[in-house]
Amino acid sequence: MTATNPASLSTATLSRVDPRLDLEVGFRPMVAKGADRPFAWQAIASGTDGRSFAAISASLLPEQRPALEARRITLTLERAATLGLHRGDALIAIPLGAAAGLAEPLLSHLFRAALANHVATERLVVEISADERGDLDHAAALAEACTRRGISITLDAFAAGPVALKLLARFTPRFVKLDPSLVRGIHGSASRRLMAEGVMRLARNMGVTVIARGVENRGEHDVLHAMGVRHFQIGTAALPHPDLSRREPRGVTPPVHRRLAHHNRAAFPLRAARPAEMALAV
Question: For residue 8, what pLDDT is reported?
């Protein structure tokens, strides 16, 4: 394989018929307390053989990974259009692998795919992993490219580690997602509570909305709710409704990264249940 222009996705020389490009895309709902519909959907890509996207990416050479990322972008927006999400106003969150590099070409591909599928670009959110195993330089480069283009970002897998805090110090994301390793069992762990409270203080000071990912029972929910968490991601994929509404603050001028309203009305149905049951409750 030979690399060409480093600023182009042409360096990704995967064959179009490579089975690793054969992906399936589902969506996980994100809900705000008191709202009757999700405010956003996270795209989840996997292989048709059941392998995770991360596993497929790890099986590729570094110069091949941008082709896989581009394929995920294309299929996500095609699937969103098929489901009618382009007719709603819910956000569409698309994870992008920072380690793939080539941030600018990938974002250009994102814009072209959104235009082709009639998805408004202001409804797109790029999710960047803040996992400690990630590459800080590549993650920062992707976040910087998104900021230049005016694309909202989410710092995913946020657990108050050095990589996550350095990214938060350099960029103001629209959302921060608490890592499931921090969320699970938080009602029985003082150390997890302290770390989550620290993240909440930072987020409040920066005007960033915190989303809890991986909540599985009432105890975890109640502790996070007491800290001020009002937004949750359901762990199981669900079928999006074609007419989704997004709750925004009323009568408030939105900041650079608009926050969703912190709803104080009745909680969405959540009980000690498996993630699949929680998705059905929503």
Answer: 55
